[in-house]
Amino acid sequence: MADKRITIQTTRYDPDKDEKPRLQSYEIPFYDDSMVVLDALNYIKSNVDGSLSYRWSCRMGICGSCGMMVNGTPKLSCSAFLRDYWPRPIVVEPLNNFPVIRDLVIDMDDFMQKLKSIRPWIIRKQEIPLGAGAHYQTNEQIDDFRQFSECINCMLCYAACPVYGLNNEFLGPAAIALARRYNLDSRDQGLKQRLPVIADNEGVWECSFVGECSVVCPKGVDPAKAIQQTKLDTTMRFVLPYGNRD
Amino acid sequence: MPANWWTRNRRYFLYVVREFTVVPIAAWLLWMLLEIKRADGGPAHYYPPSSTAFVVFSVIVLLFSLYHSFTFLSLAGVIIHVKVLDRPVPSRLIVLSQFALWAVASVVVGFVLIWFAR
């Protein structure tokens, strides 16, 4: 086991020196079956090349920081086990469809703006004072939106979405899934504030249901479902009598 | 995005095939509209093409439309969300109901066409 090695080919890009991103190969020891791609990158950074840049934080699939393309598929690098690839080499690249800042670090600004645009927080027409007590919900009411609240904003769905890749004006899977999460929340009253963004041409109607966003989601969220259901709901609001109620 | 993005994985490829199927279906439907327009002039003006090439094309279009319908109806369980007695109806049941409706609609349309053709 101690002699086992694995080749990691990772994107290197320094905007001050390189014209375009390139792949660099590192052969590192694969000393433990529980090693993940993030461990391999940390090994390279600590022992081989300290200039390698990438984002990570929790190392347990919660923070959503370490999303990368692993052999062409968007993955959390903390959840991609080397044993699933060995003895083949592993190619680690920055997430597709985003500008690259350096090495494996992508520019998240577009995503952050889109996220903010759908107002992902509980909106009340009139705030209830704290002294009035809690907003109670039944289990059924929580079940309505629970899966959409699991999103960790890792952006793997954006990297997997060819629609976003072809037109980055598209609001995108995670933002729409989060909009649906709040629209389905019995405590929320912000649907009409979100509708102009989600029902826009670049909102749900831009999606042509490739479905890959739901396949790559590491938390089991189904953004494709959120988008298609939002299409149906917005249509019903338009065609049904009194459909445009709050 | 490179032009060959849809060859990157099997699911992208099947998605593009699904979307592409509407092109020959649209061509076939346009032809049918033309035939209906011609039939408006009476039996003398109605001469549907019966060449082997056209029959082959029609069979291909039929397969494409079956594939498109199958993928569309299979996804109905994802899209439609209804509750009965405050409980969500399982996706599988929704998909089955869509296929049942499809079968019933096909029988009704077939019956009407055959009935009026007699």
Description:
The complex is a heterodimer of chains A (246) and B (118). Chain A folds into two domains: 102 residues, Beta-grasp domain (Ubiquitin-like (UB roll), Roll); 131 residues, Alpha-helical ferredoxin (Fumarate Reductase Iron-sulfur Protein, Chain B, domain 2, Orthogonal Bundle), CATH 1.10.1060. Chain A contains nine helices and seven strands. In chain A, strand 3 and strand 4 form a beta hairpin. With 118 residues, chain B is mainly alpha-helical. In chain B, 70% of the residues lie in helices and 3% in strands. Chain B is built from five helices and two strands; from the N terminus they run ααααββα. Chain B has a two-stranded antiparallel sheet with strand order 1-2. The mean pLDDT of chain B is 88. At the A-B interface, helix 5 and helix 9 of A face helix 1 of B.
Give the rounded overall mean pLDDT of chain B: 88
Classified in CATH, the superfamily of the largest domain in chain A is Alpha-helical ferredoxin
Q: For the report, how would you describe the main beta sheet of chain B?
A: 2 strands, antiparallel
Count of alpha and pi helical runs of chain B: 5
Please give the radius of gyration of chain A in angstroms.
Answer: 21 Å
